[in-house]
Amino acid sequence: MSHPRHALDEIIHAPVRLSIMAMLAAAETAEFGFLRDTIEVSDSLLSKHIQTLEKAGYVRVTKGFVGKRPRTWLALTDEGRDAFQSYTSILRQITEGTPRG
């Protein structure tokens, strides 16, 4: 199987997870609420997809407080950044019709 689509990471490929990865790739960290509002999903849906990405080792979750309010911050791990760069590279190969490299 030589078509580049066979190399797409199925963990990232889901639209919500792709949106999460793209947002986190552009930032050091992002707060849960900001990410939820930006990609327009519910708390429960975002939590579910974050769990999948965290289990894969792509996202680091840090919990803490701002004043007395609990907060959750998210960041890509080095492995997550590498996986996202690979994923976007494969998408470019597909969309530009370039051979697999």
Textual characterization of the structure:
With 101 residues, the protein is α+β, with helices and mostly antiparallel strands. It has one domain: Arc Repressor Mutant, subunit A (Orthogonal Bundle), CATH 1.10.10. The chain contains five helices and three strands; from the N terminus they run ααβααββα. 18% of the residues are buried. The model has no long low-confidence stretch (mean pLDDT 94).
What is the fold's blueprint, element by element?
Layout: H1 10-13, H2 15-25, E1 30-31, H3 32-39, H4 43-55, E2 59-66, E3 69-76, H5 78-96
Antiparallel strand pairs: 1-3, 2-3
What is the H/E string?
Answer: HHEHHEEH
The global form is: elongated
Per CATH, the class reads Mainly Alpha
Q: Give the amount of beta strand, in percent.
A: 15-25%
State the share of residues found in helices, binned by percent: 40-55%
Helix-and-strand structural type: alpha+beta
**Order of strands across the main sheet:** 1-3-2
Overall strand count = 3
Distance between the termini: 14 Å
Biggest sheet record? 3 strands, antiparallel
If you average the pLDDT, what whole number results? 94
The CATH homologous superfamily corresponds to Winged helix-like DNA-binding domain superfamily/Winged helix DNA-binding domain
The whole-angstrom Rg is 15 Å
CATH architecture annotation: Orthogonal Bundle
List the uncertain runs.
none
Number of structurally distinct domains: 1
